[in-house]
Amino acid sequence: MPNTTSPVVGIVMGSDSDWPKIRAVAAALDEFGVLYETRMMSAHRTPEIVRQYATMAAARGLKVIIAAAGGAAHLAGVVASHTALPVVGIPVPTDLQGGLDSLLSTVQMPGDVPVATVGLGSGGARNAGLLAVEILALSNVELQEKLAAFKHQLTEKVQEKNAALQKSIGKTV
Ligand code: RP5
User: 123 CA distance to ligand 1 centroid (A)?
Assistant: First the structure.
């Protein structure tokens, strides 16, 4: 992140098989110059490593944890149970109805243990990164300015596409 030299976002994933499906999260953080670390750990296969990581995260300087898992996707919830940092959950697509299992097991947390769950697919992974940026921007003016510019660019892009669409269908904007 601007003005930091160590990671402020931790990206954890349940398996190396998750990475190709969620790498858009890292791209989003890169766009804003936010420093992050990536770790593979599993709520089921390495529960003690998950506990230690989540317990120490705030003391190590992390501000947000993004957790991705598929299937019986308990990683984000278990991480959230061990830290008061904001946790963003990415449900990883699976063969079961596109990842409905991942989505429900990530989003359906009991009260008292929030996980901010994004959607399935690369759009969801990108949104996880952007949500982390927005959280960090609450206390970082440089990120606030970058987000304002980002929103402005979104408007311009849509207006350009709208103009092209109107032209292609023979109407004026
Ligand atoms: C989950 O099980 C992982 O997050 C992954 O999405 C899924 C399958 O893992 P592998 O068997 O490919 O390692 O814990």
Answer: 20
153 and 132 assigned to the same domain:
no
Strand partners, 92: 70
Average confidence (pLDDT) over 142-164: 97
Closest residue CA from atom 7 of ligand 1: 70
Query: Residue 152's domain spans which residues?
Result: 141-173
Give the tens place of pLDDT for each residue, 101-147: 999 999 999 999 999 999 998 999 999 999 999 999 999 999 999 99
Report how many domains make up the chain.
2
Tokens of 171: 């109407």
Q: Give the residue whose CA is nearest to atom 14 of ligand 1.
A: 14
Q: What is the mean pLDDT of residues 149-171?
A: 94
Close Cβ partners of 135 (under 8 Å, ≥ 6 residues apart): 63, 64, 86
Q: Is there a single domain that holds both residue 86 and residue 112?
A: yes
Distance 55 CA to ligand 1 centre (A): 23
Taking alpha carbons only, the member of 17, 4, 119 closest to residue 64 is 4
Residue 102 alpha carbon to ligand 1 centre in Å = 10
116: domain CATH number? 3.40.50.1970
